[in-house]
Amino acid sequence: MTTQVSASEPDFTPLDDVFVRKHLGVPDIDVTDWTLVVEGLVERPLRLDMDAVLALGTERLPAFHECFGSPFAPDVPTRAVAQVEWAGVPLAVLLDRAVPLAEARHVWFEGADTGSFQGQDGLTYVKDLPLSVARGDVFLAHRMNGEPLRAEHGFPLRAVVPRMFGTNSVKWLTRIVLADRRADGVFTTQFYNRVLPGDSAPSPVREVDVSSKLFVPGEGDELPAGVAELSGRAWSTTEIVGVDVSVDGGAWEAAEVEAPGSGPTWQRFSLMRELAPGPHRIRCRARDLAGRVQPLDGARNSVHEVGVEVGLNRRTG
Ligand SMILES: Nc1nc2c(c(=O)[nH]1)N[C@H]1C(S)=C(S)[C@@H](COP(=O)(O)O)O[C@H]1N2
Ligand SMILES: [Mo]
Predict the structure, then answer these.
(1) Which of 79, 142, 167, 186 for a ligand 1 pocket mutation test, highest count of atoms within 8 Å of Cβ?
(2) DSSP assignment, residue 152?
(3) The Oxidoreductase molybdopterin-binding domain covers which part of the protein (predicted)?
(4) What is the pLDDT at residue 3?
(5) Is the dihedral of CA 207, 59, 176, 30 positive or negative?
(6) Mean of all residue pLDDT scores within the chain
(7) What distance in Å separates the CA atoms of residue 49 and residue 56, rounded to the nearest whole number?
(8) Does ligand 1 have an atom closer than 6 angstroms to the CB of 67?
(9) Separation CA 155–CA 151 (nearest Å)
(10) In the chain, where does DSSP find H-type helix?
């Protein structure tokens, strides 16, 4: 049995600690020259400057944000995860104005960054999603944790696709195309495809895996002897229903897990546990509502493990 403690306000990762990923470099964008185009299979193509984007209204979206890691090492965990409060406008608001034609099936998102990756030149960062998914989920963000987007995070506007790996959240967004087929750039066809468990053919890297990460203590921490709080965050495409913690390969013990929030936020977990002096290995393993459990090893969402050293002195105060 897992105890669920009620959900509290979401916690956000300080911007200086949010990971940064870029395949083609950071474009230098002057917002006064910047526009976003919505075109292709639409009744009314749009071209918006930032004032026009802001005039659509601003909503907030607290969401966890996870990088898949190297597309060449799909089974290696990166544990690059953060939680951010995005501010911006749902893509659906723009789609309602542009009015997709009946033949439109896919939405392509193109960034302003161009360059070389893996020995191929002249590349653009383009990702795509089925129109039904894009209409429901995609958010266009111009602020992050209350600040305008920083250059490296996609200034002045980026896509955010909650509960999908970061690779789908195109930064420096300049063009949205409605199409009747998938985009054929290398970041959709060649990179970021993987064979999911039970499948024989690769599919695009989209929905996140069930996962968890120990935040406290961290790798190599020295702790006083006595009862320690072992805590972290867990997330998936659906709610997390349990997180178990194991010390030194012993039995899995149920941590307290915070109830899910209303949106795509991670859930905190914590276990109070007596630790004797000496070295210890602590692992955590999350389980979601769909019955998915983190594998013990060999997968990118394998259970997270940290090593700590407990001293002879007991905690005081
Ligand atoms: N235009 C563009 N968007 C991009 C990328 C990129 O290289 N170019 N990298 C993607 C990847 S792999 C991730 S994990 C996220 C990272 O977002 P962040 O750097 O703001 O944390 O951006 C995604 N969006
Ligand atoms: Mo990524």
Answers:
(1) 167
(2) G
(3) 23-185
(4) 66
(5) negative
(6) 96
(7) 11
(8) yes
(9) 5
(10) 50-54, 91-98, 131-137, 186-189
Structure tokens at 91: 């893509």
Low-confidence residues in the chain, pLDDT < 70 = 1-3, 316-317
The 3-class secondary structure across 98-109, one letter per residue, is HCECCCCCEEEE
Q: Is the Cβ atom of 153 under 6 angstroms away from ligand 1?
A: yes
Q: Are 270 and 230 in contact (CB under 8 A)?
A: yes
What span, in angstroms and rounded, lies between the C-alpha atoms of 108 and 168?
10
Cα–Cα distance, 204 to 168 (Å, whole number): 10
From residue 45, alpha-carbon distances to 96, 174, 180, 259 in Å are 11, 14, 16, 42
Protein residue with its CA nearest to atom 24 in ligand 1: 170
Whole-model pTM over 0.85? yes
Instruction: Record the tokens describing residue 193, joined without a space.
Output: 């495809």
Per-residue pLDDT reduced to its tens digit, 247-256: 999 999 999 9
DSSP annotation of 151 reads: G
**Atom number of ligand 1 nearest to Cα 154:** 20
How many whole angstroms from 233 Cα to the centroid of ligand 1? 22
Residues, beta carbon < 5 Å, ion ligand 2:
21, 67, 166-167
- Domains in the chain (CATH in brackets) are 15-204 (3.90.420.10), 211-311 (2.60.40.650)
CA distance 52 to 211: 38
Length of the chain: 317
Three-class DSSP category at 238: coil
271 lines ligand 1 (CB under 6 A): no
Residue 10 near residue 265 (C-beta atoms within 8 A): yes
